[in-house]
Amino acid sequence: MCGIMGYVGSGETVSIILDGLEKLEYRGYDSVGLATVERGRIKTQKTVGRLAALRKMLAGNGKRGGAGIGHTRWATHGRPSERNAHPHLDCNQRLAVVHNGIIENYQELREQLQKKGHIFISETDTEVVAHLIEDYYKGDLLAAVRRILGQLKGSYALAVLSADEPGKIVVARKSSPLVIGLGTGENYIASDITALLDKTRDLFILDDNELAEVTPAAVRLTKADGTEVTKEVFRVEWDAVTAEKNGYEDFMRKEIHEQPQALQETLAGRVDWEKGTVVFPELKIGRDDLSAIRRIHLVACGTAYHAGVVGKYIFERLLRLPVEVDLASEYRYRQAIIGPDVLTIVISQSGETADTLAALRLSQAKGSRVLGITNVIGSSVAREADEVILTQAGPEIAVASTKAYTTQLLSLYLLGIYFAQELGTLEEALRQQLLTEVKLLPHLLEKTLATETKIKEFAEDFKAKENIFFIGRGLDYPSSMEGALKLKEISYINAQAYAAGELKHGTLALIEEGVPVFALATQPDLYEKMLSNIKEVKAREATVVALVSAGDYKTEKSVDYALYIPKTHPFFTPILAVVPLQLFAYHVAKVRGCDVDKPRNLAKSVTVE
User: Fold this and answer.
1) 129 — phi, psi (to 5°)?
2) What is the pLDDT of residue 556?
3) Could you tell me the CATH number of the domain that includes residue 30?
4) So which residues are the catalytic ones?
5) Half-sphere exposure (Cβ direction) of 71: Cα atoms closer than 13 Å
6) How confident is residue 9, by pLDDT bands cut at 50, 70 and 90?
7) Could you give the 3-state DSSP secondary structure of residue 4?
8) Residue 565 has pLDDT above 60, yes or no
């Protein structure tokens, strides 16, 4: 993985591909490359590092017309190097391939091909694809690509060029996203809709086990068995401006500040304010279905997993059903008890997270109904889940998730209230109270952004720290987990989150003079216990930043820095509390000179295990 862009038409092929790849930089990558067909042969240019270096190398290349494919790579097989960068070629350098995903049986295929005399120059799994196609190519690129797919185990989004068919790109997809942009006398391919928004709004979204032959005049869609496919054009209604920085220094800060509007979008159409009820017109699941559910499994990765932990607290309190929350990468391997009486809820910003998709498919195979929460319409989760809730946060460009997280939280809150409403487990008065607070959340989040001023003032004090602890109790604990993850992701400071009651069970051994501790104390029923935990770390001369609700001036006397969020129902403090944590991570990373939008070693959409 990580980003694919291709073009076929009479335009400036190289510039169009480079511009598309630039839109995909947010996904994270370590090398970049491009292939075109020129004068009857494949011409490639690759480099380690950023796209800007490739632009410089290709300056003056004004090639017009023909076909080309480009790729930004995030290393999985083989270190970042020019040899390992995509595109990869066959022995005769007549075929070029770019690939997202992982070919799991590549070593076996490589050995078979080497015995036939094929010579490999890279360490990658992708190169076997080029050599396999070479074995089957008889002048029909689509037929050759189709023939190899049955030999590939794993996931792939493939784009292939042939020097012998210069006006054509062949693409194939399995468990890794790929879209085709439709133009007039020209067409595009990309791994992400964002790459195409300034070119076209009309798309074909490939499903698993589908291929396409893309020429300037037409797109021919088939299944892997050769059956022709008829597909409706998907019209993108996004405003391309939403994918721009819009005056902010970084995408991450822009997206932090977009959260009030994102919450409004998530709420839109989901609450009948006159009746005081939550409505999900898109859901088919009803009271009878819910009555048959005995357990709920929440499954996700990374930031989405932390949203799931919050969901567990909320669902158990509102529904009085047992809820399990799992890391998707572990879910398949612990022999979880899954069946028709389990509702599985998978959460993924991109809707393409490989481990989460695998958990989705396992749950369906075991008879569980699957509800997906995702931000991307047309994604694999959106298409494959039995039920789907779109968070409607808009494009999120920075690798570190912010607005996707808060909209996932809001979606889970609304879902919990909706289920409780259907099951009759939520008192009318409490439902009305919760919905009154829900309506205020966008405004309260806007007010919470005011903490940025104070955070900027003291961020410098933490730039040289190498270890920071985050502590909280109840719903503050998953918020602490998300705060620690944000700081690790973008500042590279070792940050650890602990349930504050666990301090005495080992962690206090690490607390000494000057060690920073970020303490969350927003839960009234646990406040006194949390205050005792704060005093425990202060007694060992830790430097404490406290996050509390407005009006709580008691804590301020016991800490070094205090940040205040507006008062809301304790259920909803995770939506507000995470904002100062995001801003803290952002400003500490900035004073440390880190690239907050593209942190090292990370990718936006993790489409491999």
Assistant:
1) -65, -45
2) 81
3) 3.60.20.10
4) 2, 604
5) 31
6) very high
7) strand
8) yes
